[in-house]
Amino acid sequence: MPIVHIRIINPNTTASMTAAIHQAAQQQAGTGTTVSASQPDAGPVSIESHFDEVISAVGVAEEVLKGEREGGIDAYVVACFGDPGLLAARELTRAPVIGIAEAAFHLATLVSTRFSIVTTLGRTGIIAEHLLQQYGFSHHCRRIRAAEIPVLDLERHPEMAFTRIVEECCRARDEDDIGAIVLGCGGMANLTQEISREVGLPVVEGVTAALKLAESLVNLGLHTSKYGDLAYPRPKTFTGKFSELSDLDLPHKS
């Protein structure tokens, strides 16, 4: 069986979170799958707003371009629950590019007719609501709940963060009439099994969900379509700090 190389892109710049996400993905990778991880050189240390997402989306695109220059990468995973820059990333490569929110929604509907999302901050729940509408999963999601913890507290205060997440998951189980829970942050990737044991419901976490979907697409020989809006970007001139993006060395025919 050929080796499948999947690149996990953490859109924020916190190296310890990149390492934790990488480890969680490696533990779930199938035989014959190599997992590597990267993060942008510049950008927010965590992603908790629309502004953070816009800045991080540029970093995601740059990481895909780096991967394409390296060669040998069969699929990419965008490891932030807002799926920042997802469609732009798909324009830059024929390889599958999977966002962790989209992946988690898909897998949750395969094990339950209704799910709730448990995320970090209430304001990021609004972003998740937009994604549910965009992807067509609003009717599957009963509620979006927030543990009201900053993303970086998942590392700075792990016991407190875990307790709050479990408490919110238990409320979702008892009050939302659901069959599964979706964890709404890539930084929760290493908590899935512990939370599932505490709550007693299937818990879907996006990094590993996206990894398994990426493996499936590669093994099925499916790639990102280069027809229509996901065709490679037309070459053009960029100015100022983005001048290095001028006339990218990408194929421009479908």
From TrEMBL:
It is an enzyme of class 5 (isomerase). One of its GO terms (molecular function) is amino-acid racemase activity. Its EC number is 5.1.99.5. InterPro entries: Asp/Glu/hydantoin_racemase (IPR015942), Hydantoin_racemase-like (IPR052186), Iso_Racemase_Enz_sf (IPR053714). It catalyses: D-5-isobutylhydantoin = L-5-isobutylhydantoin; D-5-benzylhydantoin = L-5-benzylhydantoin; a D-5-monosubstituted hydantoin = a L-5-monosubstituted hydantoin. Belongs to the HyuE racemase family. This is Hydantoin racemase. The lineage of its organism: Bacteria, Pseudomonadati, Pseudomonadota, Gammaproteobacteria, Oceanospirillales.
